[in-house]
Design a protein that fits this description.
- The chain is built from 5 helices and 25 strands.
- The protein is mainly β.
- It comes from Algoriphagus zhangzhouensis.
Amino acid sequence: MRHSFWAATLLILLFSCGTSDQKTETSADLSLSLELADSLDLDFLGSPVLASCNPEGTRLAFFDYPSKKIIVSDGSGEILDTLSKQGDTPDAYGFMIDLPVIYGKDKLIQVGMNGIFIYTQKGEMLKKIKHPEDMGRAVFASRTGKTSKIIELNGSPYLLMNSVRTRGTFAGAQEFYDTYKALELINLETGEAQDFGPFEEGSLFLNGKGFIQSDYFPSYAENKSKLYLSHGGEPKLWIYDFSPSMTSLDTALSLDIPGLFPIEGVERQELSEGSYSFHGGTAAIRNIFIQNGLILISYFPGMDPKLMEEANKLWSEGKEKESQAIYEKLNRETPPGIIVFDETSLEFLGRLSYPEKANTGGLLADDKFIYFQKKPDPDVEEDFLRVYKYKLTQE
């Protein structure tokens, strides 16, 4: 079985290590700001990525690519356990298609090509849930805080995740866009699965063009029986009334993203069946969190496609320094940000940039804090990962 894997390419390394001067844009009668509240140091030599946490922020999960280890820490960064599930064993998740998810007081979930695996914190497999369809290929993009989410509906725990169904079609065919569903809702007690989140009427993805997976890769959150969903680079937030058995579209919000380079798609005949592609430099809604009555939407405006093409050409010609210089320039000129809405009124409250000291590759949020990984120092090899905890304040 062949897999298409996208993670630590030159593009994503340069992009996720970018800098950002913190800026704020808020409504006239409200002031929003990110204030540094605390930090933690994970003493682990490698390249760990912060994946998930529990709502209280007392347990965090990381994944280290060099060692292929899942790391679980407490809220101060002290390592509680590490585990690795590689190889040809019944409890191995196979090719990773999602970062680890903290589950309850002492469990975690790992989604791979082999299924959805529930482990104890020490690595004992408690349950394996099969995917709704057998998977032939997959693509995986690693980003801080970007993984499946545990939710509770009608008193039962569910995993809300990116749907992996092919539905017997591919992105070069009209059937793909007619039958597409972004999300899978997995009952963690019964293993039953239900898919949700089509391309609604008026969606960019129904314009007759063909799109690659990074164009429509979903971001989502759930709270109080509302589902908040964005499809990749489409600057919209689709809001649904949500239950395990149905979704009903409530409203759609258009998102104003400064400096947006809109995704355009390609002619469908350029896409081939069985081919997967993921570009880290294109526009995207990267994550959604609900915190204290606020909707937090992490976005990236995308890089100038003409300059990206030029940089890729230079790289392929062996002109790595020239290529890197273009990427660094693009990185400075296209910073990510956070859009904030009121959860109840859906009023736009403001727009925030990432903190200056933060890695701009993503963020994570619990009930109180927003987490950012520290921007790495290219001149210093560190044997720990620092994570900053910021508090979103309103005045």
